[in-house]
Amino acid sequence: MNRFSGSSDDSDINLTPMLDVVFIMLIFFIVTATFIKQAGIDVLRPDALTDAAKPLVSVLVAIGPNGDIWIDKNKVDPETVRAHIERLHAENPKGG
């Protein structure tokens, strides 16, 4: 009795090359999809006629060797430093 018959079972399809191609295509589509920009609508915004652009202002705070506090070259009491800084911030919230 012959254990192995004359016909071998070599009719299997090798899926490895097909899977390689599918994964390469998947990576290609994912990468190209992130670079595609969606077309948007250009909106014409009106310009403000009443508001002039304010220049950005920096606040200079200095503490002298003897403990004096100076804000923008003006001597300030230590108790009123917070009020001066809050006032300057309210006048120019974006700072400089």
TrEMBL record:
Entry-linked Pfam families: ExbD (PF02472)
Membrane topology: Single-pass membrane protein
Compartments where found: Cell membrane
Keyword set, alphabetical order: Cell membrane, Membrane, Transmembrane, Transmembrane helix
One GO CC term, this protein: plasma membrane
Keyword Ribonucleoprotein: no
GO molecular function, one term: transmembrane transporter activity
Membrane-crossing residue ranges in chain numbering: 15-36
Leader sequence segment: none
Protein name, as recorded: Biopolymer transporter ExbD
